[in-house]
Amino acid sequence: MRKIEHLGIAVKDLEKSNRLFERLLGKMYYKEETVDGEGVKTSFFMIGDTKIELLEATREESPIAKFLEKKSEGIHHIAFDVEDINKEVERLKMEGFEILNEIPKQGADNKLVVFLHPRSTNGVLVELCQDLNFKA
Ligand code: CO
């Protein structure tokens, strides 16, 4: 793993939270994107060479809706940038981590993503992401 690519924060109202984070960080978000497969609408803020991803549920069965129901708004996942996601999945399987989706799926921000189950990572939902822009 190379660096923290972004932190994901679950929010109830993306518009409101965009304004809040704009005031907090002193800058505008640089993109909004809906990922239909995941039932989320996201926005991204650049902060140094990493990012903050805000996530709002677009439907009731969305994992974000369930998270908000069970917990509350707050940090939802930590995402690590990886060079070769399939290789990293193999390595983490060997290390005994529980992989939620072994086949990488298309995530927001032009990434291939895999999630690890929080019960194998001290309660932290971990996302691996490989930038599709740099794929050979
Ligand atoms: Co993410």
Descriptive overview:
This protein has 136 residues and is of the alpha+beta class. Helix content is 22%, strand content 38%. The chain is built from 3 helices and 8 strands; from the N terminus they run E-H-E-E-E-H-E-H-E-E-E. The chain has an 8-stranded mixed β-sheet. Strand 2 and strand 3 (40-47) form a beta hairpin. The protein is globular, with a radius of gyration of 15 Å. The two termini are 18 Å apart. The mean pLDDT is 94. The site of cobalt (II) ion has 6 residues, from strand 1 and strand 5.
Distance linking N and C termini = 18 Å
Bound ligands: cobalt (II) ion
**Average pLDDT reading:** 94
Output the number of helix runs: 3
- Give the strand order of the largest sheet, numbering strands 1, 2, ... along the chain: 2-3-4-1-5-8-7-6
Shape: globular
Largest sheet: 8 strands, mixed
Low-confidence stretches: none
> What is the structural class?
alpha+beta
Number of strands: 8
Helix content: 10-25%
What are the secondary-structure elements, in order, as H or E? EHEEEHEHEEE
Strand content: 35-45%
Radius of gyration computed on alpha carbons: 15 Å
